[in-house]
Specification:
elongated, mainly alpha, 5 helices, single chain
Length: about 90
């Protein structure tokens, strides 16, 4: 047994099993549109993780873009209006 493995057991750190990893990758595959649509084709765990990272990056970009658009809309709205209050709540 390697010293690294024995150290992790001594420190109480539990190790994730291959079955758990496969289950998590399968769950990610169901969440990511790019790989979810490939039911009949086998997709590697590496590809699922790659697409997951890309998907999260795209979501961050979309959130940033929407926040910018809301900020611009807020600037052109009467600050005391109900619409401005709604926009401010969306930006929080």
């Amino acid at each position: 047994m390697s010293s690294r493995r024995s150290q992790s057991r001594q420190s109480g750190v539990s190790r994730i099993t291959e079955d758990q990893i496969a289950d998590l990758v399968s769950k990610l595959q169901q969440l990511i549109p790019e790989v979810r649509n490939r039911h009949s084709e086998k997709v590697s765990a590496s590809k699922v993780l790659q697409e997951t990272c890309n998907y999260i990056k795209n979501l961050h970009r979309e959130v940033d873009d929407l926040s910018d658009r809301l900020s611009q809309l807020l600037e052109s709205t009467d600050s005391d209006s109900a619409q401005a209050a709604i926009i401010r709540s969306l930006l929080m």
